[in-house]
Amino acid sequence: MCGIVGYIGKRNALPIVIDGLRALEYRGYDSAGVALWDGAKIRFEKAAGRVSALESRLSRKSTLWNGKSAIAHTRWATHGKPSDRNAHPHADCQGGIFVVHNGIIENYAELREALIREGHSFLSETDTEVLAHLFERPFLSSGKIFLEDAVLEGLRHVDGTFGIAVISKHDPEKIVVARRGSPIILGVGDEEYLVASDASAIVGVTKNVVYLHDNEAAVLAPSQMQIFNLSKKAIQKSVDKIDWDISQAQKGGFDHFMQKEIFEGPSALENVFLGRLIDPPTGGGSAKLGGIVAVRDRLLRAKKIIISACGTSYYAGLVGKHYFEEFAKIPASVEYASEFRYSNPVIDSDTAAIFISQSGETADTLEALREAKKRGALALGIVNVVGSTIARESDAGVYNHAGPEIGVASTKAFVSQLGALALLALFLGRERGAVSDVLGQKLVRELKAMPAKMKRVLSGDAEIKKLAEKYLKYKNFLYLGRKYQFPVALEGALKLKEISYRHAEGYASGEMKHGPIALIDENFPTVALAPKDPVYEKILSNIQEIKARNGRVLAVATEGDAKIGKLADDVIFIPQTLEMLTPLLSVIPLQLFAYHTAVLLGLDVDKPRNLAKSVTVE
Ligand code: G6P
């Protein structure tokens, strides 16, 4: 939700922050802006629309835009509609202080009123603008003051969340940064420093980073960086190294990030399994999870598991519930993080709470984690982004290692989340004695075989594109699945909604006759998930019921299934695997189907309207 980036150092800052904005655009893309200190004054430019709109405005003046420090922003509107005026950076009354902000200032209305009473005038409808005026206050009263002191003083009045970067002509050779609740990462180069909402905007310049934590601030100057808390007490922090490359955050020959990431599913799964599968010549197979060793005993004592997440990560959690109950024989439930945190959950130290998040920054998931910890539960994270807030605040966890996911619609992260959940369930099942040696080995063997099976499904891409063409005329879809396929139905429908704006409902197939069947006619097709598993016959009956009402059916079924072709209008085949692992295969055609539908409709698949990759507001 909004991306911020800043640079200070020996190079011209403008191209660096513009590159940064492009990398961050997936976080928000309704307007963008930049402010640059050119050695004499602050220049700024803003534009509604994509980063490219800002760039074309800048291209007319770029010769004048030369300076060693700059801050920039790409917006996902919360307060005030997308417009030039509401785009960041926002400035104080005299245009002396410029702020970019990710987060929400909850008490902005009161602050704005108070500042207006004091004589400040506002140009935008945003919550962010109050920050610029708050930071202006100390300069008005005391004249000579450091920018960081003015920022810290201003932040004392603020409720809500912020990740900010500030520059000022009053104290120009620095960028002041602060965070509470919104991610901030600092880049440490050779006599140059960066600030950004995430590493993708930094990795092109340096791989050395410092993660700023909540209630921390920093001053970045060309040759030094100071970090302190919001009371200005100095803090020593270590410099970490990003373990991925800029090329991983580029399209690499694919037309879209989403397409590239769907095709990265098999390698994402290989990466989550790397060094974690135990496959002894004798004895049982199991999983080795370094990230949970420290909490092993507490985890094994847990009497129940609660999984909480949002969006696609939540659907991965629904699959995980079955894993834990079926293989570890431990009761498990799944809750939307936004519901869990307000539900007064009955959890205690006998509960293992698992939080799944690709970004590790989703505000609702983070707050749910904090709530669970407050109530004494063991908090585990299944997180992709290393060093993210959820990863840091979890007691322990499993990193996905799926690499950067840029497409707003999550694809490879889902696959790797299922991989991480399967590993955790296998580990728990073995340790709790619920999975026998033989079953353990069988599971490990099949987990290892999955990436190759996924590649086989991906090789059917051209056929799936043809099906997308065939079904392009339909505006409404029903996705049906049972047990392991129910979350896949939900995820498939979500993918279609997110990027093609087609209405799609995911349903538990058994519930079809309690309502959705009323919708079925020749214009309302059904995507039926029907792999050969113990509930196969049930879904066949559902397909028959749909056909009896003139509904069209596109089925996903297991290779060699001769029956289904006689019932469904179209069939996509996936290889045979263990029931628990079918979601890893059946989700791929649904990802591709949504992708091709959106491309055929001429839509921007990587940046669908109204959405953002990382939702850091409630
Ligand atoms: C947003 C994204 C989804 C994602 C969800 C949860 O809505 O558009 O793709 O599934 O957030 O994000 P997380 O990073 O916590 O997995």
Structural class: alpha/beta
Strand content: 15-25%
> What is the total number of structural domains?
3
* Strand segment tally: 26
What is the radius of gyration? 26 Å
CATH class of the largest domain: Alpha Beta
pLDDT averaged over residues? 94
Secondary structure elements and their pairing?
Elements (H helix, E strand, L loop, with lengths): L2 E6 L4 H12 L6 E7 L4 E7 L2 H9 L9 E7 L14 E2 L5 E6 L5 H10 L11 H14 L4 H9 L6 E7 L6 E6 L3 E5 L4 E4 L11 E5 L3 E6 L2 E6 L10 E2 L15 H7 L1 H9 L3 E2 L7 E2 L8 H6 L2 E6 L1 H17 L4 E5 H4 L10 E7 L5 H12 L3 E6 L5 H5 L2 E4 L12 H20 L5 H22 L2 H10 L5 E6 L3 H16 L2 E6 L17 E5 L5 H12 L5 E6 L4 H5 L2 E5 L7 H19 L18
Helix pairs in contact: 4-5, 7-13, 7-14, 9-13, 9-16, 14-19, 15-19, 16-19
Bound molecules: 6-O-phosphono-alpha-D-glucopyranose.
Please explain how this structure is put together.
Keywords: Aminotransferase, Cytoplasm, Glutamine amidotransferase, Repeat, Transferase. InterPro entries: GATase_2_dom (IPR017932), GFAT (IPR005855), GFAT_N (IPR047084), GlmS/AgaS_SIS (IPR035466), GlmS/FrlB_SIS (IPR035490), Ntn_hydrolases_N (IPR029055), SIS_dom (IPR001347), SIS_dom_sf (IPR046348). It catalyses: D-fructose 6-phosphate + L-glutamine = D-glucosamine 6-phosphate + L-glutamate. This protein has 618 residues and is an alpha/beta fold. It has three domains: 3-249, Glutamine Phosphoribosylpyrophosphate, subunit 1, domain 1 (4-Layer Sandwich); 257-457, Rossmann fold; 461-600, Glucose-6-phosphate isomerase like protein, domain 1 (Rossmann fold), CATH 3.40.50.10490. The chain is 35% helix and 22% strand. It has 19 helices and 26 strands. The protein has an eight-stranded antiparallel sheet with strand order 3-2-4-1-10-9-11-14, covered by helices on one side. Strand 12 and strand 13 form a beta hairpin. Helix 15 (461-470) packs across helix 19. The structure holds 6-O-phosphono-alpha-D-glucopyranose. 6-O-phosphono-alpha-D-glucopyranose (G6P) is lined by residues 310-313, 357-359, 362, 365, 408-410, 611, 613-615. Residues 310-313, 357-359, 362, 365, 408-410, 611, 613-615 line the site of 6-O-phosphono-alpha-D-glucopyranose.
